[in-house]
Amino acid sequence: MTRRLATPESPRSGATGPRLVGVDATRGIAVLGMMAVHALYVVDAAGDPTRWFSLAGGRSAATFAVLAGVGIAFTTRRRQVPAAEARPTAASLTARAFAIGTIGLVLGYTDASIAAVILPYYAVLFLLAIPLVFLTTRWLVMTGVAAAVVVPVVSHPLRDALPEPRLINPSFGYLFSDPLRLLSELSLTGTYPALPWMAYLCAGLIVGRLRLSSARVAGGLLGAGALLATAASLLSWLLLGPLGGRQQLEAASSIDVARILAFGPTGTTPTSTWWWLAIDTQHSSTPPDLLHTTGIAVALLAAMLLLTHVVRPVLRRVIIAVLTPLAAVGALTLTVYTAHVVFMNSPLDSFGAVTGYVVQVVVALAVALAWRQAVGRGPLEAGVTWLARRARSAATRAPSPART
User: Fold this and answer.
1) Are 68 and 122 in contact (CB under 8 A)?
2) Degrees to nearest 5, angle at CA 186 with 184 and 187
3) Which residues does the chain have with pLDDT short of 50?
4) Which residue, 247, 254, 245, is CA-closest to 275?
5) Tally: H helices and E strands in the chain
6) Which of 19, 119, 137, 190 is most exposed, with the fewest beta carbons within 10 Å of its own?
7) What is the pLDDT of residue 134?
């Protein structure tokens, strides 16, 4: 008989029982990966992408978004939300979006060249999740495929008519001075465009509805995720290589194509030719990129879930020792991420790149583990949860229009 790892006295996720350590550990890896992209060097001495950037760039943020969908599935009890619960569910997700967006706009006064803050985009994803939680799993699959394949194609010519993105961290000033530009940037033209990123949200909602405590389910997800990631990369290689897409890009573009293929664009591709939609480079939000990173996120989550089923005593103790602090960071994602952005923009960050990253990781693991054991939910997580519960409670008590 196998047993899954569980954190003692961990908060409950809707009606699904104790929080799965594998989910939190995956979220912890995603956060540490995003921290690595921000803190470590992107370019090596030869001018090529560093190994850390090639590994974590784009994939960490995508995993972060997929796990947002998993978390929303947990809060909605891992099923299609019935129409009778529409008002409280919408109120709860709106409150979460408001809280996360507010924190993101506060962090908007930091330097985007140091860390591009994902939270305002994340808030839009929570709003987009409101209609999604009422869909059946079959419709979620179709919506996710449409977000990954159709939205990039439709937005490709549309982006030429939209305001040029500023690519700075959105702040309250940006919100009031140019709200339409901000909306288009958060939705389609920014670093983490929410509309194509609905593909990650749908994938997370679908995965979150599964029985993740099952080793068989985790194994299936590992195979499916690996297959999807590999197929998307092979498709991009076929289009750019044998079918001549790379030559088409170089002929139609006046920019450095090689650099974009190595480091990726900033959220979306140029619009000089349709062949840009064939690349799978990080942060390109093309169909191959969205499908590849979704597959990576699902496979990583599945691998963490499978580790919790190991029963050999010695190996199990090693896994517990590794996953427990990672899961603690994953359970305090919002707090750790916010502290990281603030630290990176403060005079306290006087270390070299590698030393500074190691210091942040060690502090994050130690503080998160101690906080989880002594207090439980992180301070920012507790605030968001409190606001969401108050909104749900108020919406539940409010009379329906038919009864007034």
Assistant:
1) yes
2) 60
3) 1-18, 403-404
4) 245
5) 17, 0
6) 137
7) 97
For the chain, domain boundaries: 21-398
Q: Hey, what are 366's tokens?
A: 């130690």
Q: Write down the residue that tokens 């605030």 correspond to.
A: 383
Q: Do 58 and 283 meet the contact criterion of CB atoms below 8 Å apart?
A: yes
Q: What dihedral angle (degrees, nearest 10) is formed by the CA atoms of 96, 99, 100, 101?
A: 120
Give me the residue label for tokens 């465009």. 193
Backbone angles phi, psi at 12, to 5 degrees: -90, 145
Look at residues 154, 152, 100 and name the one whose alpha carbon lies nearest to residue 124: 100
Return the bridge partners of 43, or none.
Answer: 49
Contacts of 268 (CB under 8 A, 6+ apart): 155, 159, 188, 189, 190, 193, 284, 285
Length reported for the chain: 404
Q: For residue 289, give the nearest of 174, 185, 200, 162 by alpha carbon.
A: 200
* pLDDT of 274: 96
H-type helices in 76-166, by residue range? 86-106, 119-132, 137-158
Number of Cβ within a 10 Å radius of residue 385:
18
205-240 in b/e burial notation, b at 16+ Cβ within 10 A? Answer: bbbbbbebbeeebbeebbeebbebbeebbebbbebb
Q: Which of 365, 292, 352, 355 is nearest to 326 (CA)?
A: 365
Question: What is the three-class DSSP state of 347?
Answer: coil
- How does DSSP assign 45-63, residue by residue? TTSSBPHHHHHHTTHHHHH
Can you give the C-alpha Rg of the chain in angstroms?
21
Shortest CA distance to 208 belongs to which of 311, 297, 310, 319? 297
The Cα–Cα gap between 40 and 357 comes to 7
Tokens 């699959």 belong to 141
Burial of 289 (0-12, 13-18, 19+ CB in 10 A): buried
332: its two tokens: 């305090």
Helix, strand, or coil (residue 292):
helix
